[in-house]
């Protein structure tokens, strides 16, 4: 790679690293893993930087590399891992409601399959259109829509389940019959 392109890549990383780290953080739940994911994606992108003709598309290219890398990591995970019904409680350093909501959302995102998580992140956090998301993930717009629909339904179910579990743990009696029936279902 020519010296000018190296400087161009360094400038790109310097100006975009915060936004790219946020994207990585949304793809993997652990902040350290997110940093590793971004670093790995940057190394892979650096090797192909001169092949990106339109540098305005570098963000999309790098996001795709992060998604592919995250998928590789997920596939390579130890087979001894066993999914559990009970997810660990998320620790929240900041007591504000916004941070608590964000931590809860990041925690329940763990219930989604990698494909669903990618669609939710790109559509809702990265605010990409259906067509942009489809292009980034190599799927049709219809598949993006149906995957997003199923993912959001799964997230709603998980939120409701946790609300019912929390009420049960606290010994809270739902005053209305509808609430009892919803939690019983």
Structure characterization notes:
- Helix 1 (3-27) packs across helix 3, helix 5 packs across helix 7 and helix 6 crosses helix 7.
- This protein is mainly alpha-helical.
- It is elongated, with a radius of gyration of 20 Å.
- The longest helix is centred in the C-terminal third of the chain and has 30 residues, at 141-170.
- The protein has helices at 3-27, 31-46, 58-75, 97-108, 114-125, 130-137, 141-170, 177-184.
Task: Tell me the layout of helices and strands.
Elements: H1 3-27, H2 31-46, H3 58-75, H4 97-108, H5 114-125, H6 130-137, H7 141-170, H8 177-184
Helix pairs in contact: 1-2, 1-3, 2-3, 5-7, 6-7
Class of secondary structure makeup: mainly alpha
Beta-strand content bin: under 5%
Portion of residues within helices: 55-70%
Could you tell me how far the N terminus lies from the C terminus, measured between alpha carbons in angstroms?
60 Å
Run of helices and strands? HHHHHHHH
DSSP summary, beta strand count: 0
The biggest beta sheet is recorded as:
none
Low-confidence stretches: none
The residue-averaged pLDDT reads: 82
Shape: elongated
Q: Please, how many helices?
A: 8
> Rg to the nearest angstrom?
20 Å
- Specify the oligomeric state: single chain
């Amino acid at each position: 790679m020519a010296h000018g392109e190296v400087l161009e890549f360094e400038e790109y990383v310097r100006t975009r690293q915060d936004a790219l780290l946020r994207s990585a953080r949304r793809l993997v739940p652990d902040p350290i893993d997110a940093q590793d994911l971004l670093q790995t994606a940057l190394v892979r992108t650096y090797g192909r930087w001169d092949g990106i003709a339109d540098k305005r598309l570098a963000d999309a290219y790098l996001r795709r590399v992060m998604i592919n890398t995250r998928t590789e990591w997920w596939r390579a995970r130890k087979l001894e891992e066993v999914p559990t019904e009970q997810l660990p409680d998320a620790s929240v350093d900041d007591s504000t409601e916004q941070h608590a909501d964000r931590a809860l959302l990041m925690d329940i995102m763990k219930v989604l399959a990698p494909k669903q998580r990618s669609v939710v992140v790109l559509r809702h956090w990265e605010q990409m259109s259906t067509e942009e998301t489809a292009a980034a993930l190599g799927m049709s717009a219809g598949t993006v829509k149906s995957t997003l629909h199923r993912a959001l339904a799964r997230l709603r179910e998980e939120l409701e389940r946790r609300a019912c579990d929390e009420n049960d743990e606290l010994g809270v009696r739902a005053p209305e019959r509808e609430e009892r029936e919803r939690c019983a279902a």
